Amino acid sequence: MTRRKPFGERLHAAIDARGRLCVGIDPHPPLLRAWGLADDAAGVREFSLRVVEALGGRVAVFKPQSAFYERHGSAGVAALEETIAAARAADTLTLVDAKRGDIDSTMRAYADAYLADGSPLAGDAVTISPYLGFASLAPAVETALESGRGVFVLALTSNPEGGTVQRAQADGTTVAASMARAAARLNAAEVADGAPLGSVGLVVGATVPDLPDDVDLADVRGPLLAPGYGAQGARGAQLRALFGDAWGAVLPSTSREVLAAGPDAAGLRAAADSALADVTAA
C-alpha cells in the first residue's frame, strides 16, 4: 500500500487546484424538507450523495456534520460512511465534523474510529475538542500523523459563550493562545521538512469579533478552518481582515448558503462558485 501524503500537503494541493472553500454537508430537518426529502436516514443519505455528486471534484473539502447522521441511529451512521466513501471516490477531501474529545483509552477509541486506516468513518481529517487539556488529544494527533490524516482543534468558536472559556487566561496566556502554540509546536517538524502546511489545524470562527492579542495564527503553520462564512454573515473581505498574515492558511467553510440552492445540481454549483469567487477576490 502506498503511504498517504501528509494531510497538510494534500489540503494545500486541493486548495491550489480548486480554491479555498469547504462545503459543509449538514442534512438538518429544514433543509431536508426544502429538498423534498424525508427526515430519516434514507433522506439524509440521498441529500448527502446529491451534494457529493454535484460538487465532488469542484471544491477543496467536504465537511459532513456527524450529528445530523447520528440522530438517525445506525442507519444514519451508515449514511455518513457512504458519504465519506463517495467523497473519496470523487477525489475530494473530507473533514468529519465530530468534535470529539476525551482522555486515555476513550480518546484512543475515537482516534481509531475517525482517523485510523480501515475505519469506514475515517475521512481525511476530523474536528476535535481540547477542553480536557491539549495533551488529552495525543492519541488523535498521533493516529492522524501516522496515517497521513489531519485534525482541526477548536480554538476560537463564534458562539457567544465560547469566549468565557477560550479567552480566559492562565498564567497570563489566553486558552486560545495556548491551543495555537501547541498546534504550532506539532506542525514545526512537518514544515521543517518542507511541507507547505502542517496537519494540525485550528477552528477559528469566521464571525469572531477579533483575535486575542496573544494569538498569532500565522505562527501555527497549519490550516485554519473558518466556519460561519456565508449564511452566518461573514464574507471574504471580513475573513481577510480577521486573519491578516495567516490568510494563506485559511479554509472558509459554508453550509447553508450553498445547500439552500439545492436540490438542483446546477444551483448547488452556482452557489459554490459564487462563494469561491467572493473568497478569491479577498
Automatic annotation (TrEMBL):
Occurrences of domain Orotidine 5'-phosphate decarboxylase (ranges): 20-271
EC main group: lyase
GO molecular function per UniProt: orotidine-5'-phosphate decarboxylase activity
The protein's annotated pathway: Pyrimidine metabolism; UMP biosynthesis via de novo pathway; UMP from orotate: step 2/2
Active site: residue positions: K99 (proton donor)
SUPFAM superfamilies: Ribulose-phoshate binding barrel (SSF51366)
Assigned EC number: 4.1.1.23
Any Pfam family the entry gives: OMPdecase
Spans through the membrane: none
InterPro entries: Aldolase_TIM, OMPdecase_AS, OMPdecase_type-2, OMPdeCOase_dom, RibuloseP-bd_barrel
SMART domains hit by this protein: OMPdecase
GO BP of this protein: 'de novo' pyrimidine nucleobase biosynthetic process; 'de novo' UMP biosynthetic process
Keyword field: Decarboxylase, Lyase, Pyrimidine biosynthesis
Reaction it catalyzes: orotidine 5'-phosphate + H(+) = UMP + CO2
PROSITE patterns per the UniProt record, alphabetical: OMPDECASE
Source taxon at top rank: Bacteria
NCBIfam families xrefs: pyrF_sub2 (TIGR02127)
Recorded family membership: Belongs to the OMP decarboxylase family. Type 2 subfamily.
Name of the protein: Orotidine 5'-phosphate decarboxylase
